[in-house]
Design a protein that fits this description.
By secondary structure, the protein is of the alpha+beta class. The chain has a single domain (5-193), classed as Electron Transport, Fmn-binding Protein, Chain A (Pnp Oxidase, Chain A, Roll). It has 5 helices and 7 strands, in the order αββββββααβαα. Strands 2-1-5-6-7-4-3 form a 7-stranded antiparallel sheet. Strand 3 (42-43) and strand 4 (49-55) form a beta hairpin. Helix 2 (114-129) packs across helix 3 and helix 4 (175-186) packs antiparallel against helix 5 (190-199).
Amino acid sequence: MYTLPSFALDDDGAATVLARAGAGFLVHPGPEGLTSVFVPLVLSADRRTLTTHVARANSWWREADGAPVLVLVLDASSYVSPRWYPSLAEAPAVPTWNYVAAEVRGVVRVHDDLDWVRRQVVDQTRHFEGDGSDAWRVESVDADYVERMCRAIVGVEIEVSSIEAKAKLSQNRPDEDRLMVRTRLAAGDDAQRRTASWMGDA
């Protein structure tokens, strides 16, 4: 991932991108070229593994075990018009795109084991549901049904070798321009407001 130093996020920032996005594309080289799958992702506390699962019917996993993988995660993405820049009256500018993204590299380990898959599903569900009193739990569902669902998926674990993240949020613009970009995005649609929320932290 090409990243200017002013746009780079540290390890904690990268982990935040993965946590906020919650899902991403796994890309690996298959027999017929690059193949991808979009999945929910959970980063381990030590940041050494990502876990997920894919449908057994999806052929992505069949050639994935031991393969290098590129994980692409996007948490914010918005167009930025030069018309928003107060400085436009003094200097020309062009349109751009603000975004927050992460790129993980690693090796795929496929787990076609019912116990591993069940644990992964339980852990993933707790991760995304949280601890609220109304949180849904795998344990609340009929065990035979859960087993049938787990047999229809295959576990995937990624041994992480590197994580890079980037927040391109108008840091290269004058303060007055950056403030106006954030203001305009904050008044926009859901995607724009999500980008604006990152601009308060970058």
